[in-house]
Amino acid sequence: MKRIVIMATLDTKGEEAAYLRDLILRRGHEPLVVDMGAGGEPRGPADITAAEVARAAGADIETFRGRDPRKREAATDTMIRGAVKRLRSLWEAGQVEGIVSLGGVTSAVMASSVMKEMPFRIPKLILTSGASLTGAHRFFGPTGVTVMHSLVEVGGLNRLLKEHLARAAAAICAMVEAAASTDERAEQKPAVAMSTNGWVELCAQRILRSLELGYEVIRFHATGVPEVVMEKLIEEDYFCAVIDLVPSSITNERFNGSRISWPRRLEVAGERGIPQVVAPCLVNAISRIRDGSQEEAAEMAMRKHYVMDDLRILLWLKPEELKDMAAVYAEKLNKAKGPTKFLIPMKGWASMETEGTDLYDPDAIRAFVDGLKGELKPEVEVREVDANIESEPFAEAVLAAFEEVTVAAGACRLFEPQTEG
């Protein structure tokens, strides 16, 4: 039997949670009900009570009883923190195989906040009447959350709600069973994470073709959230090495660009001692969503830029700004405990940034390289490559560096990369 956690506010959804519990039990799985309701007394039994959840967060549930709107935010935050702590403990003990929640918007917000902190391996499902609400995309997270839209309010059992609950039970049970049947990690090739985007696509394809016989290279598009997913999976030991071609969300965060991931970007692999090869695709540029404003026009006038389409634009940093950014990247790379190499393509950091174009700025590249070398600890090597990032010589340099760091770390399977042609 696989244990499936049911998250619900039993003070308002007790009957519905009990119905879902019975459906899961009939499908041969073991339900475990976690009460997230802080406002009133529960209307059904819980395996982990609201009082226990609050206590895990260092609070007394009686503080929040009575539905005082002034206490709602504090109650929600407390129950989220307590649930994360309790479910983490259950996961570490091997007692959680899946998580499902039911309710309205508040329940979905609480459940998604908890689910985002749980490992990717755990299937997660939210049944909510708020799936069509503006901003509901926030229910999804970097550890894999599936959202099921309830067309009727999750409140008061009726024939339509029972149908939705039956589908939710079938879905989460099937997800758990599928996760169990596909857990063949011991028989798979060692996995390598690689960040990429369209401006370094040819390089990424060459790397992929060269490594695919000995490794499973899993690509993450560097648009923000996928990079968080990549690093969350690094934390869960999915990968034996990382090829980080596009860490540019760090630059975007500093200049309020449109491709921002999270504060720990480029730190997780280093902290865990995982070997990594890093390249600077678009580290020298800011991604922006076009709005036609005067501010946009002024920034375009003062910066080199590349108009991607009617929606997006790239704006290049000035040499002094790029030198300052070198210190930011160095601070993150200095946390590395495993073999780490930063490869710099001296003839351009994106496919459109080539010699002879206005976007190519060797002085800015040199400013970054010198700044990086001045800040990095000796263990992190900066390797200059006399090529554009999209060229075959740069891809070959990445492959050579990859072999060096994996051998040095004793990680992955020793494998001779395949040369093109």
Give your account of this protein's structure.
With 421 residues, the protein is an alpha/beta fold. 40% of the residues lie in helices and 17% in strands. It is built from 13 helices and 14 strands. α3 packs parallel to α4. The protein has helices at residues 10-26, 50-56, 72-92, 105-115, 159-181, 201-211, 225-235, 249-254, 268-271, 294-302, 319-333, 362-375, 392-409, and strands at residues 3-8, 30-35, 98-103, 124-128, 146-149, 191-196, 216-221, 241-244, 276-278, 285-289, 305-307, 312-316, 340-345, 380-385. The longest helix is centred in the middle third of the chain and has 23 residues, at 159-181.
Shape: elongated
CATH superfamily of the largest domain: Uncharacterised protein family UPF0261, NC domain
- Spatial order of the strands in the main sheet? 7-6-8-9-13-14
CATH topology of the largest domain: Rossmann fold
Low-pLDDT sequence parts = 414-421
Instruction: Provide the residue-averaged pLDDT.
Output: 92
Proportion of strand residues: 15-25%
Number of H/I helices:
13
Q: By helix and strand content, what is the structural category?
A: alpha/beta
Q: How many separate domains make up the residues?
A: 2
Report the biggest beta sheet as strand number plus sense, adding barrel if it closes.
6 strands, parallel
